[in-house]
Amino acid sequence: MSLIVQKFGGSSVQSTERIKKVAEHIVATHQAGHDVVVVVSAMGDTTDDLLDLATDVTATPPPRELDMLLSAGERISNALMAMAIEALGTPARSFSGAQAGIRTAATAGRARITEVAPDRVRQTLDRGAIAVVAGFQGVHRDEAGDSTVTTLGRGGSDTTAVVLAVALKADLCEIYTDVDGVYTADPRIVPDARLMEHVSYDIMRELAVSGAKVLAPRSVEYAARHGIPMRVRSSYNAEPGTMVSGSVGPLSAEYSAVAGVAHDASKAKITLCGVPAGSPELTARILQVVAGIEAELHYSVLDASWAVQGRSDISLVLPAQDGPPVMQALRQASAELGFEDLRYAERIGKLSLIGSSLLSQPGVLATCCETLAAAGVHLETISTSDMRFTALCPADQLTDAVRAWHAAFGLGAPELATVHAGTGR
Amino acid sequence: MSLIVQKFGGSSVQSTERIKKVAEHIVATHQAGHDVVVVVSAMGDTTDDLLDLATDVTATPPPRELDMLLSAGERISNALMAMAIEALGTPARSFSGAQAGIRTAATAGRARITEVAPDRVRQTLDRGAIAVVAGFQGVHRDEAGDSTVTTLGRGGSDTTAVVLAVALKADLCEIYTDVDGVYTADPRIVPDARLMEHVSYDIMRELAVSGAKVLAPRSVEYAARHGIPMRVRSSYNAEPGTMVSGSVGPLSAEYSAVAGVAHDASKAKITLCGVPAGSPELTARILQVVAGIEAELHYSVLDASWAVQGRSDISLVLPAQDGPPVMQALRQASAELGFEDLRYAERIGKLSLIGSSLLSQPGVLATCCETLAAAGVHLETISTSDMRFTALCPADQLTDAVRAWHAAFGLGAPELATVHAGTGR
Question: Where is the Aspartate/glutamate/uridylate kinase domain (chains A, B) (predicted)?
Answer without folding.
Answer: 3-234
